């Protein structure tokens, strides 16, 4: 089956420039959407077809759409930056394309060919380039996603899917500068277990995380920290972020456990920390280790990383076993150095030594 090319059917009534500028002055996160979206259909036997860029609009859906009942849905998140030289580039979209394929396999969904995924992202960013905020940390957040469109209540892999891409301008996550977050370690709930869907970016993983996040909020914390699903001993992730632990000049992240999401930012931080001269490692880290190393001073910094917030320092830990501070509750030096180095590549302020940026043309 051949990969379809995307037919451009742009809108004849774009958001007026003045309204767009007003939105771009304070976009927040995920609140506003650009003028277009990409839709591509898949049906069993026929494969991918009807690839179109069309005006952004609501979808109409049968109440028995299988996704609404059984959550056969996956997504990705990546960003396009307007760089210091005025060009627009996306950050490592090939990585998102490959993870989207892995997620699709786990959820018994068809794989989107990498060139179709990249072509859809490029087409939307090119069409809605005016929505990429001016140079700096602000970006256009791109959300590819796929869901079942078959109608019926039988429980089986659907025979029809829709792959879509939408985009939303995103402000700098920390408006008044980077602030360390406090975390609540959840021992009652787990995000994922080996053999489950934790390695996939599946909508259901996020639904099942919400109660634990609400518990963290009720306890006055910003984020929830997940432990492993088997022993509830080892650190897995923080909210929707991967975690990093800094021991002086050693930068360590939890190793893959069969339930951890392989973050594109996680992979980028490992490379950048090595570039900056840190020794990097992927290891299991227990909650007890975290506490002990915070108390004896060997653990100097902890931070979370993800596409949306990029890098977030962790200042305080609260758990049923007690509370402690990390790095005196401040943003650490390694955290801020790695954060700047990553953002400099993304914004074009530093050379793209890893070939991570995909310029539009
Ligand atoms: C990210 O940090 O990039 C995420 O995955 C968050 C997103 C679900 C809003």
Explain the layout of strands and helices.
Elements: E1 7-8, H1 17-25, E2 36-43, E3 47-55, H2 66-70, E4 73-75, E5 78-82, E6 88-91, H3 93-106, H4 114-127, E7 139-148, E8 160-170, E9 181-186, H5 203-207, H6 210-218, E10 223-227, E11 235-238, E12 241-247, E13 250-254, H7 264-275, E14 279-283, H8 287-295, E15 301-306, E16 310-319, E17 322-325, H9 333-347, E18 357-359
Parallel strand pairs: 1-3, 9-10, 9-16, 13-14
Antiparallel strand pairs: 2-3, 2-8, 4-7, 5-6, 5-7, 6-18, 7-8, 10-11, 11-12, 12-13, 12-15, 15-16, 16-17
The structure holds 2-OXO-4-methylpentanoic acid.
Structure, described:
- The chain has 361 residues and is of the alpha+beta class.
- It folds into 2 domains: 7-170, D-amino Acid Aminotransferase, Chain A, domain 1 (2-Layer Sandwich); 181-347, D-amino Acid Aminotransferase, Chain A, domain 2, CATH 3.20.10.10.
- It contains 9 helices and 18 strands.
- Strands 1, 2, 3, 4, 5, 6, 7, 8 and 18 form a 9-stranded mixed sheet that branches.
- Strand 16 and strand 17 form a beta hairpin.
- Helix 3 crosses helix 4 and helix 7 packs across helix 9 (333-347).
- The longest helix is centred in the C-terminal third of the chain and has 15 residues, at 333-347.
- The model has no long low-confidence stretch (mean pLDDT 95).
- The structure holds 2-OXO-4-methylpentanoic acid.
- 2-OXO-4-methylpentanoic acid binds at residues 77, 240-241, 306-309.
